[in-house]
Amino acid sequence: MKFGIVTFPGSNCDYDSYAAVKFVLGQEAVFLWHKSESLESCDVIILPGGFSYGDYLRSGAIARFSPIMKSVERFARSGGIVIGICNGFQVLVESGLLPGALMRNAHLRFSCKHVYLKIENYDTPFTGVCPPGKTLKIPIAHGDGNYYNFQPELEKLKNKAQVLFTYATVDGNVVPEANPNGSLMNIAGITNREGNILGMMPHPERAVEKILGSDDGLHIFNSLVACFEKRPAKAG
Amino acid sequence: MNKKKAIIYVRLKDGVLDPQGKTIAQAMGNMGYDEFSSVRSGRFFELECESRPDLDKRIDEVCRRLLSNPVIETYRVEMIS
């Protein structure tokens, strides 16, 4: 299984993602340069964290017009698996591949800490083999992670099971105290309606070995691998 | 001359929380300016434009596609000849 990790100018989690996929997961990984238009037959595309284009204008607003994003959009709209992590999530909402917007954290501070994620839907390529009923301990590191959308849209997200991860207590209680940035409904990650595009603010690639403080992020990567063993598909 | 200037103001839609504006309002209060009960912050762009027949449409397009995020922001354009 081949993962493609997009490098924008200012990406800084591309190597973390690469290491997680290649050395921990033991799968094939390649970097995809933002100026290229080829996805090199990858099965999964990762838009990594960082500060693409210095977060100028709005986080992700300029990266979404990169040449590679044309191919990523085409791939995503035809059912290809795409994961946007942190800045990658911001790129996905700016490009319209995922609904809503990511605004400045409500408290205006950069948040960098471990959080607990409640898994709201186990029937996705990203969560299929996650341990049922258990929260995931995964770090966040962002200044613009405050998920916003209008009320009718939020209801739709909820009704269509598109809310995948919410900020919760270790026991899985989704309460305001567990919300690190002011996100509506404690949203930490969402999918598109078809379920093949995931955007999440927390960094699963930074939680893949016990020595990093948690290896819960591996459940997400393992889910992808398990899913692909059942359903292979290739990007152009 | 054929050059025009477009002044573009981008701001958050009404009802969208503006934590920066709120913090600025608080700072004003702390400084003794109690009369400013609310602040909404925004962005401002000045574009030098070559004149062309569909300029207004092009400006509108770039505002929607790049300069603003239509999910949370609105914009207003002023033209200066």
- Main sheet strand line-up of chain B: 2-1-3
Low-pLDDT stretches of chain A are none
Query: What's the SSE pattern of chain A?
Result: EHEEHEHEEEEHEEEH
Looking at the structure, what is the overall shape of chain A?
globular
Helix content of chain B: 25-40%
Shape of chain B: elongated
| Class derived from helix and strand content of chain A | alpha/beta
Secondary structure tally: strands of chain A: 11
Percent helix among the residues of chain A? Answer: 10-25%
| SSE pattern of chain B | EHEHE
Mean pLDDT of chain A: 96
Low-confidence segments of chain B: none
Sheet with the most strands of chain A? 9 strands, mixed
For the largest interface, the chains and their residue counts are: A-B, 20 and 10 residues
Structural class of chain B: alpha+beta
Strand content of chain B: 25-35%
Report mean pLDDT of chain B, rounded to a whole number.
93
The end-to-end span of chain B amounts to: 8 Å
The value of Rg of chain A in angstroms is 16 Å
Oligomer: heterodimer
Strand order of the largest sheet of chain A: 2-1-3-4-11-10-9-6-7
